[in-house]
Amino acid sequence: MGTLVKITLHAQDEDEARAAFAAAFSRIRELDDILSDYKPASELSRLTSTAAGVDARSSRDLIRVLAASQDLAVATGGAFDITQGPVIRLWREARASGRLPDDDALRKASARTGYNKLHVDQSVGTVRLDEAGMQLDVGAIGKGYAASEALAVLTSRGIGSALVAVSGDLAFSAAPPGTRGWRIDIHSTGPAFGIPSVLELTNAAVSTSGASEQHLDAASRRYSHIVDPATRAALTDDITVTVVAPHGLDADGLDTAASVLGVEKGLALIESRPDAAALIVHRTPDGTKLVASSRFKALAAAQRRLN
Fold it and tell me: Helix H segments across the chain?
């Protein structure tokens, strides 16, 4: 899926560790073959070559990711939209070339998008696209799913303490031996805001989105790798969103959706999800602001009590 995967685990011996690593990475490779838009032969890529209007039978993994994506698209009014593949590709090329994409090309690409043109039927396991030439990109939700799925493989093999990192998407189980939890970096703005920069967490998923690593600097502005479907433009607002949720499928999609929605609407989205917590770091010329959801504040308070 265009990124690197790192797995940390605690096992009884080297043989158990090697077998667990092999099984978890095998699951990652399987999902890469299903979900990657970088591979022309992936199941996701083959789906977009299916004739428009045809109900294509799809794998359980693809159906699960597409259905969750569509649920989030509906909940956000299209702020989260995996059909933006044609537009995202233009911005991906722009980051590689260092030049902004052409407005006319963006407009033409956008004409082949729209979450209402994608139909997922979980009851029978089929997917239908309304228009030829559509391209799906699940990079904003698939990596979190892969992290949690690889962790599930480790757990099924008796590995009680492990962390899977797929780029900025983490999934982890019980605390490493002798600790209270996995130490997860949350922000780097300093202690003055009253929010711990590191949280010790167990049995959860954490995803972070922002422009710190993937971005385009052009025309005196920084453009994020996240695209707003409403404007066809990469985000220029300096916003970083970290979401804590039970599964990477939730955490990964929500951090991107909240980034597109902005601070107020993004926070409202997080608060509407009973199992999610989020910290939004918003940097402006006037300074930096940290905005935490109610459940994130509870996590931070628990951390302070332990310290």
Answer: 14-35, 43-48, 60-75, 85-97, 103-110, 142-156, 248-261, 263-271, 294-306
| 229 part of a folded domain | yes
Cα 22 from Cα 24, distance rounded (Å): 6
The pLDDT profile of the chain, 307 residues, written as one tens digit per residue, is 889 999 999 999 999 999 999 999 999 999 999 999 999 999 999 999 887 999 999 999 999 999 999 999 999 999 999 999 999 999 999 999 999 999 999 999 999 999 999 999 999 999 999 998 899 999 999 999 999 999 999 999 999 999 999 988 999 999 999 999 999 998 877 655 678 889 999 999 999 998 667 899 998 899 999 999 999 999 999 999 999 999 999 999 999 999 999 999 999 999 999 999 999 999 999 999 999 999 999 999 888 877 7
Q: Which residues does 113 contact at the CB level (< 8 Å), separation at least 6?
A: 81, 83, 84, 85, 86, 87, 134, 229
Question: Is 20 inside any structural domain?
Answer: no
Is there a domain that residue 143 lies in?
Answer: no
Of 101, 129, 157, which residue constitutes the final position of a domain? 129
What's the pTM value of the predicted model, to 2 decimals?
0.95
Q: Which domain holds residue 71?
A: 43-129
Which CATH number does the domain housing residue 103 bear? Answer: 1.10.3980.10
CATH number of the domain where residue 295 is located: 3.10.520.10
Kindly report the three-state secondary structure assignment for every residue of 224-251.
ECCEECCCCEECCCEEEEEEEECCHHHH
Per the structure, the count of domains in the chain is: 2
Domain boundary among 129, 145, 161: 129
